[in-house]
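#struct-help
A.M.: can someone run this one for me? Single chain, 385 residues.
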Amino acid sequence: MGNNKEGFFWPTQEQELLLNAALLQGEKAITSWKSWGAAVNFDQLDAGSQRLLPLLYKNLTDHNINHPAINVYKGFYRMTWYKNRLLSHRLVSVLRLLDSNGIPVLLLKGAALVPLYYKNWALRPMSDFDLLVPHKDALKTVNLLCNSGWRPTAQMIDESDLVTKHAGTLIDDSGIEFDLHWKIMHESGRYEDDYNFLDGTGNINFENISVSVLSHTDQLFHILIHGTRWNEIAPLRWVPDSMMILREAGDSIDWDRLVNEARRRCLAVPLKKALLYLHETFAAPIPAETILSLKKMKPSLTERMEFLIHSNSRNFLRDIFYLWFTHVRTSNVNGSLSLVLRFPSFLRRFWKVPQENNLAFFLILKLAKRSGMTKTNNLHIQSNL
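D.P.: on it. Structure tokens below:
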């Protein structure tokens, strides 16, 4: 996938070399590191690649490499530890607040991955932390947090968000952010879709607090689906995240469950592409029968279209299609005509456009913003996606 097309989430050839250098062992890791160093201008290194430098530092020092660049990588390693410890300290205060109010919490993404698989706060950069609370407790949680120094980064989270979105971002006065989830991921659609995941959760000790985490299988599923989306910052972390899960808990992965969950959720395309990429590029230890099952998958046209929208860069038309697929997943109606007729209502709820305001005019403003015709910054769809 090294010859990736513009706008897609696949690593470039240079990023693939860096991933090899950070993840592999022996001569191939060293050769990849040297080739990567010769191919990039380090002073202009993209943010996605910078996130891999702590892991690169650890791997090179494990190989006893002595080079001036090692000290530079070490700086990223130390800074990652420092920032992550700030985040984890703030996370503990949130966990205690919710626990004292009887709200169960499930850790997601980096906050779960580091203690479970990386086992070193310096190796995996985190820009925020992610928590899931029960759907019925989401608004209560928001109120508790807002009374404890947090505030939403966008509009106040309300009932409409619980249907049209899967999470909302909150920030404190120090600038620390976290994503409060009421559904595990965007593709969950309705919160009932997560029941399979929640049935298999376990517990870990996080800074002397018992907190729930996904099973190893569901953890891998979540990382693969979340990682295979386009992002302005190259979403490279899904590769080391997945490889760490497989290294630390590969024997515990229920591969049949993984494949069946993808079929159930109509997410065969991203799962298939991601796992085959890991297997072919990084020799990920995936059973032969699972590889065969993946290759036999025949996703529907709708699934392929949805994946194309999620994995490609944004423009106004793709944003509308993105929201259409969100509407389809969250809707409780059947039939194409009913979905089409209810789509304007979904858009109004998603963007919180008052009933007295003209939705068509609002869409024109959004299109104008996309085209650079206005100077306002508060209408950009990405702030609400």
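A.M.: thanks! Residues 90 and 176 are 8 Å apart (CA to CA).
D.P.: also worth noting: The radius of gyration is 21 Å.
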